[in-house]
Amino acid sequence: MSILIKRGMVVDPASHREDVLDILIEDKIIKKIGKDIKSYGAEVIDAREKIVIPGLVDLHTHLREPGREDEETIRTGTLAAAKGGFTTICCMPNTNPPIDNPTVVKYIYREAEKNGVVEVLPVGTISYRREGKKLSEMGRLKESGVVGFSDDGSWVVDSNLMRRALEYAKMFNLPIISHCEDPYLSKDGVMNEGYWSTVLGLPGIPAEAEEIAIFRDLSLARLTGSKLHIAHLSTRGGVELIRKAKQENIKVSCEVTPHHLALCDEAVKNFDTNTKVNPPLRTGKDIEALKDGLREGVIDIIATDHAPHTQEEKELEYSRSPFGIIGLETALSLVIKELVEPGILSFMEAIAKLTINPSRIIGIDRGKIREGSMANLAVVDLSRSWQVKEEEFFSLSKNSAFIGWTLPGKVEFTICKGKIVYSEDLEFLHEF
After folding, report:
1. What angle do the packed helices 236-247 and 207-224 form, to 10 degrees?
2. Contact at 8 Å (CB) between 23 and 369?
3. Active-site residue numbers?
4. pTM of the shown model
């Protein structure tokens, strides 16, 4: 199958290229990039007045399979990813059973190949069953194809265990992805501790629960010389800790989610459980610090932390409802709205944090547009806006805090490994 993308504005942060070009795709690969390319028999995508970007890469997706297929499956999660312009997603290991052995890793790769429409890369656990008591079989997990290690959803409280994990991961040249949250400080909390938690009478989670954990993990990264990635950064104090660590040349990277940029803790006042996330939505000053961190390069990437839950779970009262919202289908538009339109980042800079930067953190050859590379691309119309509607989500779950919002930028095509896996005209959605 050949595809010819004609006259699109190609924006490729990896090469700093921004030009109106044609792209010819053959046999999963970008065959040629140039002006006025002709290819007889190719399927033509007219990209005039559109932007062509590398397929987005998400380092933090919860697909729930195996174990909670009522919330999401590899099939529905990858469809949601394709609709959002993502062509590579890293699935987190807090499944049931967790991704702590090669059998589960192989299952995910097999199911993704059979039922998925985008590339799925598993993240293995740091500890056996994510219990924080003994290390997982990290060597065997590496051999089976994991791209990092995380106990996401839980912080590794045992400092010696975390040190050993960092040392092992260093041998494999893979990052440890840390969910930084002191469970003793956050226990029973459901939102950010501050003015709004007091007004609403809800138990709070202080910023220090995150910052103390970040400080400990940075200290161990300094000690071991290992690669540490901090997941879903949410506080201004955390930004400052990362800034200082990078000045010390500690091997640390970090991410922020679109929902932590778009919403503050005041959003909880309506008791909409779709605002219940972990870490919690913080204050306006925290959001300002996160945006400053993105502009300065302190924060390396943007990740969705796509966390689907059933309607029945999210309809529980706020204190009993689970943490998490979906994010794959709204991420790019929220980034445009919160970062590009206000001039905090250029479009090129924003796309870098969604493509080449996450690819480099886990050491994969993705997130770039060049001849000979895998043909993972998205075609976006920046002139179009769209309304977020519950019934139009491809995700199996619908727990979004952005339902009813009008957002800028519309993904019109997503191409993964040379195939059109998403188009607004659903007849172009390939079944695998």
Report:
1. 10
2. yes
3. 305
4. 0.97
